[in-house]
Amino acid sequence: MVNESNGGVPPPQELETFLPQDERNKEKIVSKYNMTKDVESADFDPFTERKLDNPTSNMDTLTHLLKASLGTGILAMPKAFKSAGLISGIFFTVLVAVICTHCAYVLIKCAHVLYKKTRRTTMSYPEVAESALENGPQWARRWANSFRIFILVSLFLTYFGTCSVYTVIVATNISQVVLHYMEDHKDVLGIRIFITALLLPLILMAWIRNLKYLAPVSMIANLFMGVGLGITFYYLVGTGGLSFDKVTAVKPPVEWPEFFSLTIFAMEAIGVVMPLENAMKTPRSMLGFCGVLNKGMSGVTLVYILLGFLGYLRYGDDVQDSINLNLEQDHIPAQIVQIAIAVAVYCTFGLQFFVCVDIMWNCIKDKFTKRPDLADYIMRTIMVTVCVLLAVAVPTIAPFMGVIGAFCFSLLGLIAPAFIEIITFWEIGYGPYNYLIWKNILVLLFGMFALVFGTKDAVISIIKVYSA
């Protein structure tokens, strides 16, 4: 749970003021999800009880969600389409987006159910996992704490490693542009120099303690990513070369696993979903057909499809691992793309790092009750320093993190939410014909598919890097 000294949480949100009396009564019953049969909790509304110092608006949350999902993985979408085929890529991207969005939706929905059962107003992802088992069937309760620790460790490893990879990505993009104009200094200005130079800027970014104040940073990131993607689209469409003759509509199924591994891990943002929901002024707005989650992921999916489709159509089987590598590197627009991506990824660092900070602070905050603010800043500084030192020590860290990402994101983003929903609705019921069970079996099978093939591709990437 996000805490005040961690920049975050909780003035009462008097939402009841704006509701008619009969609507308020309906809210207390909470019949939408048939949340609980516990009479004692029927008069407890977690959303009006939630206390936030600086709550985020729906637009702030949407901005964060877009930034979390529109990461550097989008640049690999043309390569993903190369593995699936031009037409198959469109349908498979929609499929992945629907499943990833649904799993995030499920996690938030289960949290809202458990708020009522536990009379709590906010929960982190590990706390949702623990509460689901604690309030589930008798056989599951003894595993509650172990499940929480597993989710906690997986989240921390994944996002801490991701932040270290982001540091390498920013340094690499900047160094390529700088060294283009300073070729005589290539031997002196190695990648480790550029990574080290990022230490202070990253510490300053990590010192932003509240998601409300990170919203403008996410807007800047979205702006620069938009500039980079806009110029890239110009290269794809405005310079000619689009041809259906050099692409394949549907690739053989043996090549599809690479598409799914690239797309899932590019689009997945399960770790930031609960921190965003916990900081919202109107948490119910996260869900719903036209809720923040669906709006954000719909926009993200459209951009992913456009870039993947046009990138593969432009370069065919010659498309590189990252589409910006296909651009003429000595052209000014291509260099602007690299700088824009570097700035966008730098601005994203704070949002991704927020997950790690939230986890670490909740583990140590009880030991620093006298001067919590000072302890918080020191903790953030040490964590960023370790993150940068890791990048300096292993600049080729990305393939290693691919293994952790493939393993953890499959578990965290697909398998765990399906399991949590089954346990949460154990007593409430699974709907007509137990449709929730059958739906979650399909999600679990898809998650296992992503786990196996994503991990396999990541291991192959490590072998390629170090055998070369």
From TrEMBL:
The chain crosses the membrane at residues 86-108, 149-169, 189-208, 220-237, 257-276, 297-315, 335-357, 377-398, 404-429, 441-463. Its main location: membrane. Residues 1-24 are annotated as: Disordered. The keyword Transmembrane helix applies. It is found in: Membrane. GO terms for cellular component: vacuolar membrane. InterPro entries: AA_transpt_TM. It is a multi-pass membrane protein. Keywords: Membrane, Transmembrane, Transmembrane helix. One of its GO terms (molecular function) is L-amino acid transmembrane transporter activity. Residues 56-456 form the Amino acid transporter transmembrane domain. This is Amino acid transporter transmembrane domain-containing protein. It comes from Parnassius mnemosyne. The lineage of its organism: Eukaryota, Metazoa, Ecdysozoa, Arthropoda, Hexapoda.
